[in-house]
Amino acid sequence: MPAVTKEAHKPGDYFVDYESKVFEDVKADPGDKALVTFHTMAFEGSIGLVNILNAIRLNKKGFETSILLYGPGVLLGVQRGFPRIGDEAFPGHQNFNKNLERFMAEGGKVYACRFALQALYGSGEPALIPGITPIMPQDVLDCILLHKKANAVIIDTWTV
Predict the structure, then answer these.
(1) Which residues pair with 38 in a beta bridge?
(2) InterPro entries, from UniProt (predicted)?
């Protein structure tokens, strides 16, 4: 066996050049909009959290940003905790809630489909994180179409 002669990595070391940005830092023009849609399950992949962080970043770049939760995506917007609502049962348990709350506190809008809440997941509007706007199932398509008409940046997220 060959001997390993390299020193072990230490906290503070890095593996990549994290300072060298390739693309210009795009900012929104006045009136630019963005929509991030979620048809994904909480805790079943990273895309839910990643795209909430993308929505926060779009907001910071000056886009009027909305998040649309529909289908299983509504589960990203429900209050959670164990043993009590708000308690963090394990590290990262409140990531969705905390980041959606941050997004809304920074001016973002979040919409959740009432049909998915009740018909699919047996939940209701009181279960939503305060500040999330419940919408009719017909509003899901219209929300997307209105953003499309406004030439918004649209990031669609589907997982199955």
Answers:
(1) 69, 157
(2) DsrEFH-like, MSMEG0572
